[in-house]
Amino acid sequence: MKEKLWNSEYLKVWSSNFLMNFAFWLLTPLLPLYLTDTYGANKEIIGLVLSGYAAAALFIRPFSGYLVDSLPRKLLLLICYGLTAIFFGLYMAAGSLALFAICRTLHGAPFGATGVSLTTVAIDVLPSSRRAEGIGYFGLSNNIATAISPSIALLIFSQCHSYNVLFVLALICALAGLTVNATLKLKSREVIQDKKALSLDRFLLLKAWALFIVMFSCAFAYSILSTYVAIYGRDRLGITTGTGVFFALFAIGLIVARLVGGHSLAKGLMVHNASMGMLISICGFTLFAGVHQEWAYYVAPFVIGLGNGHLWPAFQNMFLNLAPNSQRGTANSTLLTSWDLGMGIGMLVGGSIAEHFGYSTAFWSGVAFWFLGIIFFFSFAKKHYLKYKLV
Predict the structure, then answer these.
(1) What does each of the 391 residues of the chain score in pLDDT, given as a tens digit?
(2) How far is CA 257 from the centre of its chain?
(3) Could you please report the per-residue DSSP string of 273-313?
(4) Where are the beta strands (DSSP E) in 199-302?
(5) Are 105 and 64 spatial neighbours (Cβ–Cβ below 8 Å)?
(6) Per the count of CB atoms within 10 A, which of 110, 163, 165, 260 is most buried?
(7) In whole angstroms, what is the distance from residue 219 CA to residue 84 CA?
(8) What number of other Cβ atoms are within 10 A of residue 191's Cβ?
(9) How crowded is residue 199: how many other Cβ atoms within 10 Å of its Cβ?
């Protein structure tokens, strides 16, 4: 008989991850509009302000991976999750664009550490025989939050026209997740003592550098699309209420892919799922960049979601397969660092391109970069992974 996948501790971690991402995605789609409406920020300034969050998350990820592997995980999780919740409240206290930029940037550090902590704790509480499958389903907590929270945010905003209401709701959700985490019961484990003081691999999984480049490329493309989709829809296509539907369709694609791909992951077909996901997602990005019509605006995110839903859990398992059990946190933080780096640079570069050359050029630059990443995977990264994987 199979070991139980949905045990009580796994459900707690799953729920707290959902609540954190629900809070995050309540705000993310509307922040570009918030910065424009409240502070009169242009597209380049929006990219600069929002990229600060990714920069802070990027900076903290490698250190958080080592801390998760070295310190009591529950205590670290509670501290990071608590700080993440506080910053949702601090957005309301920002009275200027500069203060908001500071809050947004600082928020990235605890949020980045929380993501590493939650993912690693989820792996800890999963039965080893169902770990690959469980990692895939754990991502559903992100996907479901992504599917419903933007639509809820837009619905609430359309009724009250107050950004502060959304900030308060995000704070409440984060505090609820913190409460759930406080009830976690984790097994004790040994502390890492075999790493050299200045060893780089205590912070980054060096064997995963090729996979790192591929995920960076995907994040670069996605960051440009996700950051400017609301303004693009309003200014270019006249879509004023479609952002929530866009992200909902993207998340539905993610969910469908996670459910369909779970059996393949359980069989160890990581490379197959990753390959299929990349090919599907590039089709979606190309459709969005190449067809400036309303139907493409809604079909593309579903296709991209299908692709990302296949490739993300596959890549996460591949990162973990390159690391010993004592470096689970480091493997997770390396994966998330690649994503943060791509998101941050994509926001900066995409904002500058959109400001000077238009949205179409910005979206096509993302497609081109992701296409290069896919070529790199099939020509080198796949072989590198198969050569160095431990399981």
Answers:
(1) 667 888 899 999 999 999 999 999 888 878 888 888 888 888 778 878 877 887 788 788 888 888 888 888 899 999 999 999 999 989 888 878 889 999 999 999 999 899 889 988 998 898 877 887 788 788 888 878 877 887 788 888 888 888 889 999 999 999 999 999 999 998 776 555 555 555 666 678 889 999 999 999 999 999 888 878 877 888 788 877 677 788 888 888 988 998 888 778 778 788 999 999 999 999 999 999 999 888 999 999 999 999 998 999 899 889 989 988 778 888 888 888 898 788 878 888 887 888 788 888 999 999 999 999 999 999 999 999 999 898 7
(2) 16
(3) HHHHHHHHHHHHHHHHHH--SHHHHHHHHHHHHHHHHHHHH
(4) none
(5) no
(6) 110
(7) 22
(8) 10
(9) 11
Name residues whose C-beta falls within 8 Å of residue 156's C-beta, 6 or more positions apart in sequence: 165, 166, 169
Residue 60, classed as helix, strand or coil, is: helix
> Are 116 and 73 spatial neighbours (Cβ–Cβ below 8 Å)?
no
Q: Which residues contact 277 (CB under 8 A, 6 or more apart)?
A: 257, 261, 306, 307, 308, 309, 310, 311, 312, 314
Taken in order 154, 106, 76, 126, the sign of the CA dihedral is positive
148 CB-near residues (< 8 Å, 6+ apart): 22, 248, 251
Rounded distance between C-alpha atoms, residue 58 and residue 131, angstroms: 26
Write out the two tokens for 126.
Answer: 């999963």
**170 and 24 in contact (C-beta within 8 Å)?**
yes
Separation between Cα atoms, residue 84 and residue 24, nearest integer Å: 10
